[in-house]
Amino acid sequence: MAEENRPVLTALTGLRAVAAIGVVISHSGVPASLPEHLDKIAHYGHIGVPLFFMLSGVVLAYNYAHLSGWQGRRTVRFYLARIARVIPLYWAVIAYCAVYLWIQGRDNHNWALIQNLLAVQTWSGDLRVAMGWYNSPGWSIGVEMFFYLLFPFLIPVVAKLYRRFGARGMIALIAAMFLIMFTLWISFYLAGHTSMGAANPTSAHRWLYRNPLCHLPMFISGMAASFLIPGGARWSTARHHLIQAFVFCFVFGMGAFRPDGSGWSSAAYGLLWVGPFSLLMISLASGRGWAARFLSTTVMVRLGVASYALYITHRWMLYALPHTEYIKKGEGWVPYGALLVTIVIVLLLAEGAHQYVEEPCRRWILRVTKRWTADPDRPAPAAPTPDPLLADTVRLVTNGAPYTYPR
């Protein structure tokens, strides 16, 4: 769990639900009769993945701002908390896939299974290993695990930049990450790799979309954005309305009216979103603005809490639901009804997976390992110590009221 209590940034929790549902819709497909621009937006749901990566940077930096490299049991606690959060349900879905393949009499591809269990499949140049034979969304868990591994060593560097240069340093860091991503994208575009198929080991999809190193700038941008939250909390409500409306129009405008071509498609793997998503998260963290209010509603927060379960379980559930074929082939209102039923079912299954697998396993792992990671020579503090880097956020978001971050 986090080292200190933090106010819950409820709008960012709700944003996780939007990202997960966008991915689900992009995988389930939409009715053929849907207007062209709405169809293009629906197929843009994959941008929920880079959004998750940036959110991870924000949330981790927000909760572990004082983690500094290797700090013995404190760092071990961090790693165990991350593993307990994502791995049990991830393994449960892989087990389901393996049993399904065995029942069907199909090859389990043992080497691919091992890579998936170790969450290193995303490093493979073989698209079937990374996204084919097992749970295809699982490749992003390998990216997240890479981020978790590096985080204790990245956060002190970002925090030092903030202490020395303040908000300008964080803005410069985000700009530098954008330039790195732009350089990578333009290199692939000029070399013709953006037009290659996803199965090609040298394609932009293989590198700009699936390779953890190419997504690291987005994660670091999220970390930098976290340190800008106190400044964003001081913005006027009108500014928050404007920022949230701008990002909404930018994202949906790019989805509906984006130019055709592999160059634009590969830019959507992450490059296009660094600036807009950074602004959006800083704004949403304040809890003000029309989008923040919507995302902070009970329904959206509840969906956001179970969003990881939705993301990691939905793909194979879509394969198992027989009525999904009517989404694209049905006539009249049938496809829309099939889509609605599909979303309801995968949401219910995700809630069950969260309640009965994800959370119980997380609590059990943390309980069992607590005695190994506790500091025997240091008594537990009577109250959590506020992080001075984020003290203004606590005051502005909660108006001084105590707030506990649930983990």
Account of the 3D structure:
The chain is an all-alpha fold and 407 residues long. The chain has one domain. The chain has 19 helices and no strands. The chain is globular, with a radius of gyration of 21 Å. The termini are close together.
Query: H/E element string?
Result: HHHHHHHHHHHHHHHHHHH
Helix count equals 19
Structure classification:
mainly alpha
Which regions contain 5 or more consecutive residues with pLDDT less than 50?
A: 380-407
How many E-type strands?
0
Based on CA atoms alone, the radius of gyration comes out at 21 Å
Mean pLDDT: 88
Range of helix content: 55-70%
End-to-end separation in angstroms reads 6 Å
Main sheet makeup: none
Shape, please?
globular
| Domain tally | 1
What amount of the residues lies in strands?
A: under 5%
Topology:
Layout: H1 10-28, H2 36-42, H3 48-63, H4 73-103, H5 110-117, H6 127-132, H7 139-190, H8 204-209, H9 212-227, H10 229-232, H11 237-257, H12 262-267, H13 274-284, H14 290-295, H15 298-305, H16 307-320, H17 325-329, H18 334-373, H19 391-398
Helix pairs in contact: 1-3, 1-15, 1-16, 2-11, 3-7, 3-9, 3-13, 4-7, 4-16, 4-18, 7-9, 9-13, 11-13, 16-18
Summarize it:
With 407 residues, this protein is mainly alpha-helical.
Brief descriptors of the model:
407 residues; mainly alpha; 19 helices; 0% strand; disordered C terminus
